[in-house]
Write a structure and sequence with these properties.
alpha/beta, 286 residues, binds 3-hydroxy-5-(hydroxymethyl)-2-methylisonicotinaldehyde, 8 helices
């Protein structure tokens, strides 16, 4: 099998481990080529830092896409996340139309967490994100984003196993779109995702041990592992299980190190867990 190729349409935040600084190493470690299309450059992410810089890349994105088209590039997945402006919704919609080919479209509808919308997101961007998500084969909202996509107040989301099943089925566009709802805890001490697999027509929860601390960027770690596993041909629910276990391992390690939440999870030493054995090791090189 040739090396799968994914384009990752996210911001590049220099410090704080999220978006492209997570997607690039994770996909590479999984043996997947990751071609970044940055939506913005920030000095840090927007959660827990004051005075961060923000360079909007909206104007550059269609130019890069146009160049890629002229090269005849194709992708096994288009994977989008944090966007930098309302205009980027249309840019990413056009990108998906032009590049989806036979690949999978994963939209992480990044908009907020813990019941709050991220600082740089306007209501126009949130409405646009719901539209963009309609182009996806797979979406990976957290509970805050699920509430925004469904247009219900966060506090009124149904909870528990039945509630989470109801949410993913309502978000599935009548069964056409797979949904992986993250941060879905079925009982105290455990957390994970509720998944609706559109190909299998099946809803199933994956759960792992809950680490009793929150860290920035875990949604990006989760969606990046999920996307890597999907392009390797892993079925959705198994891919979500791998993603949940990797996030759990990262969070356990980071909690033990007592790192500040805003620095994200200390995933780099654990990247080896994601690597598959190569068919021909370094023999030929020695
Ligand atoms: O992890 C989501 C995310 C991505 N990118 C930026 C963010 C956030 C969440 O705060 O600020 C810049």
């Amino acid at each position: 099998m040739s090396t799968p190729r994914v384009t990752a349409i996210h911001d590049l935040s220099g410090f704080g481990r999220c978006s492209l600084t997570v997607a690039l190493p994770i996909l590479s470690a999984m043996g997947v080529q990751c071609c970044p299309l940055p939506t913005a450059f920030l000095s840090t992410h927007t959660g827990g830092f004051e005075g961060f810089t923000f360079l909007d890349m909206t104007g550059e994105m269609p130019r890069a896409a146009h160049h890629w088209k002229s090269l005849g590039l194709e992708f096994d997945a288009v994977y989008s996340g944090f966007l930098g402006s309302a205009r980027q919704i249309g840019v990413v919609e056009d990108f998906i139309r032009d590049f989806r080919g036979g690949g999978v479209v994963v939209v992480d509808p990044v908009m907020g967490d813990g019941g709050a919308v991220y600082r740089t997101y306007t209501s126009e961007m949130c409405a646009g994100m719901a539209r963009l998500a309609e182009r996806a084969d797979v979406i990976t909202p957290n509970l805050t984003e699920a509430a925004l996509l469904l247009g219900v107040p966060y506090g009124e989301l149904p909870a528990g196993e039945t509630g989470f099943r109801d949410i993913v089925e309502r978000l599935s566009l009548g069964g056409r779109r797979s949904v992986v709802l993250t941060g879905a805890s079925l009982e105290p001490g455990s957390t994970g995702a509720m998944c609706f697999d559109a190909a299998a027509g099946r809803t199933e929860a994956v759960q792992t041990r809950r680490v009793d601390r929150d860290f920035h960027g875990t949604g990006d770690v989760f969606s990046s592992v999920l996307t890597g596993a999907l392009v390797q041909g892993t079925p959705l629910i198994e891919a979500a299980r791998a993603a949940a276990e990797f996030v759990r391992a990262c969070a356990e390690r980071t909690a033990a190190e007592e790192l500040p939440m805003r620095e994200g999870v200390d995933f780099e030493p654990l990247l080896g867990l994601l690597a598959k054995p190569v068919s021909s090791p370094l023999d030929g090189l020695t």
